[in-house]
Specification:
Layout: H1 11-16, H2 36-45, H3 86-100, E1 119-120, H4 125-128, E2 147-152, H5 158-165, E3 180-181, E4 184-185, E5 194-206, E6 209-222, E7 234-239, H6 246-250, H7 254-260, E8 277-279, E9 286-288, H8 300-312, H9 331-334, H10 353-362, H11 375-386, E10 397-398, E11 412-413, E12 421-423, E13 441-443, H12 453-457, H13 471-476, H14 483-491, H15 494-505
Antiparallel strand pairs: 1-4, 2-3, 2-7, 5-6, 8-9, 10-11, 12-13
Helix pairs in contact: 3-10, 8-10, 11-15
């Protein structure tokens, strides 16, 4: 149940009881939204834990005052931020309706739902983000819906190099098939094809237990609908990530992200995270990327506009092309009827459609933690810290006082991410650079809600392509900068590994 107003002390009250001894604290000079006194207190409250005999204050409320305390069931990721206004709850519900809307091919009697495709991966946002949660690879005999393939090619011309250098593009689209491989199409044209997944078993030794058997997927594209792929095509599989807490991630002060970057590993700790610099579609300015598996989008709105265009083939004010990802070589696709309705607006999904979906996406609440005082969970938390996981999975932040929505302002949150790009080793490499991310680098994914994946989505598949069948496998796939931490996990006694997994399941 939702806590009655007044039961959750505001962050200001928490900070007020923390002493501000500036002599033993490095002030957060990068936080231009805070007073000097607040900087000292925020630095103190966001320090990593050193005591693991009990839970930290407000650790239960991992989304701050926006945390959902609703009953844990399949709808656990679908509740609104607990601190939005009554009027905003109405916007959230309307946005939810648009998020679930099934788009139809044009022309259609539905009119306001016209515009699907012509090429697409899903007919609705909910089609990929089932119950607002995590996608998975297709089961045998299923079509791939919540997993798709990104496509690109290495730069071929000086013009390509210039577009990448200026960040006008983050990758060069495959000339015929574009940025994304779309299996489905409206009546009258073929889809782009299908793909199969072949699995290769890899054994990883574990101290005190039988070896873990990881499954490495290999992707074979078949039944191409528009001719051959470019001989240098780069392919990257992606599953849909969970939707919770996106507005709070956007509200993390950019300085907090940049302050953790150490691309040259100046401090010598083996961790060399770097920020992703991308162009904001609305302002044209370079800013920090936060969203997507390679941090290629700066805002929830830009991420939503890209999904409308690439996943469903719907034009919006930010990505107006009604044909979505159809390329110039797919002339039949480009000439198909579109869903623009002059009386409704200039694009297939005119505002307020994109605004509503953006608001909904920003305000999907993070569920409260479970079992924060359980001794095994606390032991697992201690191990998580001691083996170095917090070097990338930063536990907590205080969001910006200048966040757009008051519900996201100045909240103590626990997402367990630094939102930086890290080299994850050859095992997870897709070989496909995107913007500042190399073919071995991925954004640190937030961990909040990860323990509810099976409850919400009826599976336990993790990582960017869903290859890991459980949380231990997800850890064992870590390489590159995370390889020392992975090796420490493999060397743990079985009871300590179990405690670590138990901690992750509590998030």
């Amino acid at each position: 149940m939702r806590l009655p107003k007044g039961c959750l002390p505001p962050l200001a009250a928490l900070l007020a009881v923390l002493p501000a001894h500036a002599e033993d604290i490095t002030p957060l000079t990068h936080r231009d939204d805070l007073t000097q006194s607040d900087r000292v207190r925020v630095e103190r409250v966001t320090r990593p834990a050193t005591e693991f005999s009990h839970a930290e204050k407000f650790e239960l409320m991992q989304g701050g005052a926006a945390t959902s305390r609703k009953r844990i069931n399949r709808d656990a990721f679908s509740h609104p931020s607990a601190n939005i206004t009554f009027e905003e709850e109405q916007l959230f519900k309307v946005g939810n309706g648009v998020f679930k809307k099934m788009w139809a091919s044009s022309p259609s009697s539905t009119q306001a739902s016209d515009g699907l495709g012509p090429l697409y991966n899903a007919r609705s946002c909910q089609g990929c983000h089932l119950k607002d949660g995590r996608g998975r690879p297709p089961r045998p005999g299923d079509e791939a819906v919540s997993l798709f393939l990104r496509l690109s090619i290495p730069p071929q011309t000086p013009e390509h190099e210039a577009l990448l250098a200026s960040k006008q593009l983050l990758s060069i689209p495959e000339p015929t098939y574009g940025n994304q491989f779309q299996a489905f199409a409206v009546p009258g044209i073929p889809g782009e094809g299908r793909f199969d997944i072949e699995l290769e078993n890899i054994e990883v030794p574990l101290n005190g237990e039988e070896p873990a058997v990881l499954q490495k997927p290999n992707y074979i594209i078949r039944d191409l609908g528009y001719g051959d792929l470019h001989p240098e095509v780069l392919i990257s599989p992606r599953v849909a990530p969970p939707m919770i807490g996106l507005g709070l991630l956007e509200a993390i002060h950019a300085g907090d992200i940049e302050a953790k970057a150490d691309p040259d590993d100046v401090d010598g700790d083996g961790i060399s995270g770097k920020g992703s610099r991308v162009r904001d579609a609305e302002t044209g300015k370079l800013t920090i990327g936060r969203f997507g598996w390679k941090a290629s989008n700066p805002t929830v709105r830009s991420q939503s506009a890209d999904a409308f265009s690439g996943d469903i083939g719907i034009g919006s004010p930010d990505r107006p092309a009604p044909w979505g990802d159809c390329t110039e070589k797919q002339t039949l696709c480009r000439n198909m009827p579109h869903g623009e309705q002059e009386r409704l607006g200039p694009t297939e999904a005119p505002d307020p459609v994109l605004e509503l979906v953006t608001f909904y996406s920003k305000n999907l609440a993070v569920p409260a933690r479970r079992d924060v005082t359980d001794p095994q969970v606390l032991k697992g938390k201690s191990i998580f810290h001691s083996i170095g996981c917090v070097s990338c999975h930063t536990p907590k932040y205080v969001t910006s006082r200048d966040a757009e929505n008051p519900a996201h302002q100045f909240q103590l949150i626990w997402p367990y991410t630094d939102l930086l790009l890290h080299d994850m080793g050859e095992g997870l490499a897709d070989g496909r650079p995107v913007g500042d991310a190399t073919g071995r680098e991925w954004r640190t994914p937030p961990l909040w809600g990860i323990g509810l994946t099976e409850t919400v989505n009826n599976h336990t598949r993790f990582l960017h392509d869903g290859r890991a069948r459980n949380l231990l496998e997800a850890i064992l796939w870590h390489g590159g900068e995370a390889e020392p931490a992975r090796n420490r996990v493999a060397a743990l006694p079985p009871e300590d590994r179990a405690a670590l997994i138990r901690f992750l399941e509590s998030l």
